[in-house]
Specification:
Helix content is 16%, strand content 26%. The chain folds into two domains: 33 residues, no CATH class; 115 residues, no CATH class. By secondary structure, the protein is of the alpha+beta class. The strands form five sheets. The protein has a three-stranded mixed sheet with strand order 2-1-7, with no helix packed on it. A three-stranded antiparallel sheet has the order 8-9-10, with no helix packed on it. It has a two-stranded antiparallel sheet with strand order 3-12.
Length: 172
């Protein structure tokens, strides 16, 4: 089975030369057009995160980390605040650091950590972001595959531990 790419990356990839490559070997019928068009529709970031949070042990980072249901590491920023919860990542920042939308907390599957540490904050745009121990949660657009932690230690961004602290050690 081919690993699923993160949907937030598809529009940039398939809108350019890759779309030509995908359709170049096809017979040119409607199916080729339909497949390309379907995959270029942007998917909101809120559907790319949760409905589950899980704790796994990261050998690379030297301890437990929090991941989403698809296996992607979740991050916190030193520029944010935990008490009261506040996100400093707005505007262009959210194209790189993807806020994890809160949704219905009661339906969120939580494994390996205290559900009582979860909360939500209202962002400046009115959306609700999931928090862990008060820290707003994010995904990183530079993590191409489950298990990546490419944003850890990058300009004040860290993979989050189940307690809400920075996970392990910086890798960059």
């Amino acid at each position: 089975m081919v690993p699923m790419m993160r949907s937030v990356r598809w529009p940039a990839v398939l809108a350019g030369p890759a779309a030509v490559v995908l359709t170049a070997g096809c017979a040119g019928g409607p199916a080729a057009t339909d497949v390309t068009a379907e995959r270029t529709v942007p998917v909101p970031a809120s559907t790319s995160r949760a409905p589950g949070l899980f704790v796994v042990n990261s050998q690379r980072l030297g301890g437990p980390i929090v991941i989403d249901v698809r296996g992607y590491a979740l991050y916190r920023s030193d520029a944010d605040r935990a008490s009261p919860s506040r996100s400093a990542c707005v505007g262009e920042c959210t194209a790189t650091w993807l806020p994890v939308m809160a949704g219905e907390l009661s339906r969120l599957r939580v494994v390996g950590m205290d559900r009582g540490r979860l909360g939500r904050l209202v962002r400046s745009d009115g959306t609700e972001q999931l928090t862990l121990s008060g820290w707003p949660l994010y995904g990183y657009s530079g993590d191409a595959f489950p298990g990546d932690a490419n944003g850890h230690g990058l300009n004040g961004w860290y993979v989050i531990s189940p307690s809400g602290e920075r996970a392990g050690r910086a890798t960059s």
